[in-house]
């Protein structure tokens, strides 16, 4: 298909950022972090990415990891290195609690994922960009009750990031976005269907917050797209480009050529970063 790509835009951005830039001050070659059982599409690609997910298995005995390390040190040094990195990642992310408390569509699970990600990002030589996928937002039925639960999880996730990042919070930007919008009208099952316009949230100590940036199109029938959807007035790529340029030091050329090919007409949104 024309325009089809095999990688996610966040991975392409990591691949194009030069070594030693703002996103990688430490010694680690791994600058991306994928959180969850499956890597979100946006961070899949050629650039190496660290993966972590809360464990859903029963905890192992304390002596099993060192016994495995001893075994692989004598039989497979490469696997021993990978195992050591995995053990270290798990300890940093999970702290004293390694058992999963819920899934990516559960408020408790969302907070646990965010807290683990923040602990890894806070390390001096840890990854600098992370992708987390929270589920359950496709609210075709019972939307109010579901959003009441999910938004609590999202709010608690913001708080977890702030708490665990510590001093790094002041240099942090969090972008929350959905794959698609919702219809303006409620359907027969007290939900909304797939639509066009949506909302994105920005949070973090690096964000110039306390405001709403929008060209509100209105909800009158004549103002809706195709008579059913909230009209989109802002290209999400402009928001991403604004953060990438002003916080991560990405070049506009990289963003237009590699990250979002064919987006010359979409300029970086200015004034998002403190």
From TrEMBL:
It comes from the Eukaryota. Pfam families: DUF1501. This is DUF1501 domain-containing protein. It comes from Ricinus communis (Castor bean).
